[in-house]
TrEMBL record:
Top-rank lineage group of the source organism: Bacteria
Keywords annotated in UniProt: Membrane, Transmembrane, Transmembrane helix
Segments passing through the bilayer: 21-39, 54-74
Keyword Transmembrane: yes
Organism the protein comes from: Gordonia liuliyuniae
Protein name: Uncharacterized protein
Amino acid sequence: MWNRISKILDHEMKVSEFLGALILIGIPYGIVGIIWTLTHTSHLSDIDNPVDQVISFLGSIVCWPVLTFSNVTMT
């Protein structure tokens, strides 16, 4: 078993392969984050400053896994 893990970890990746893997992971993460944020926008109405609303909206897209488990609104 350790040989398999060592073999996987010893695999060398090119920068383009690494970026491709990040993109393949990032696209679904971002889509789910946007959908979650669009369905949970009640906290944005309490914020008066439009810049703070944008930052809170973008922050909730990035932090959606934490927000789903802790039920925290970012203000």
